[in-house]
Amino acid sequence: MKSTEQLLTTLHGHMTGGRVEESAKLLRQAWLVAPYRLTVDEIVGLHHATLEFADRHPRAESLSDGLHAAAVAYYRMAVLNGATVMAARMVELWRALCVEEANDDRLCHHAFALDTLASVYRARDMPEQVICCLIDLVEMQFTEGTVEGVAWAVRELGVEALLAGDVDDAVAKLSRAEQLYEDDGADAEYLGERAECRVLLGRAHSAKGDNASAGFWFKRALEDLPDDGPLAQEVRDLVAAAGSGQGLPEARLLKVGDFGRMDWRDVEQKTCAC
Prior knowledge:
Elements: H1 4-16, H2 20-37, H3 40-56, H4 63-76, H5 80-101, H6 104-123, H7 127-143, H8 147-163, H9 167-183, H10 191-207, H11 211-222, H12 230-244
Helix pairs in contact: 1-2, 1-3, 2-3, 2-4, 3-4, 4-5, 5-6, 6-7, 7-8, 8-9, 8-10, 9-10, 10-11, 11-12
């Protein structure tokens, strides 16, 4: 790899010359090695160059991978303010592109950017900001008429309420999410998501001490799962626990919450799977 000074000089030349793809590639490569090879001053220079690129080319989709790599690099260096800045620019990029002309790919990238930003906020113990990211996701998905996207985001809002101990709000939000899946007909592609939502709704009722309602929703979840699969067995265990009045077993495959929970140990090379 070139020296950082050479890289920044090359990068500036690419940016001013309109060579967007080359610039984006250089940025991502630099951020991938930043935590291991660059000095503080070099990282500051790279930070400014990244934001300059974002300012010069605010609709460049190729910049997203570089911004994500920057957020990851800052997280790995425990510089969470820097991670927040880069993840927020990622969200800004995809929000603008979705407003300009939304499609499935852009909506997926917008959700991924919000997930990245929310993961940083969760690491900073800022649950209110995680919720703001989810509300942003709900609004975008609603604007574009993506019912399953709205349902998933509302479900995750219910999870946040459940984890915060506000079980009444959790039941309300998870019930709304389940109804959205139900009203949409639950396409086969989304049956698993509806099952997860019903399990969460059962857990919320259990947290209220309503084992009968918990058991009802666990049984409804089984309707959407293959009988012989491990997920179904986990739900059958939940049905049995609710029926006996025992405490519910911990989640194994059916996690309690997906949003804002990026595994930072496994994202160095990861970009959006959209």
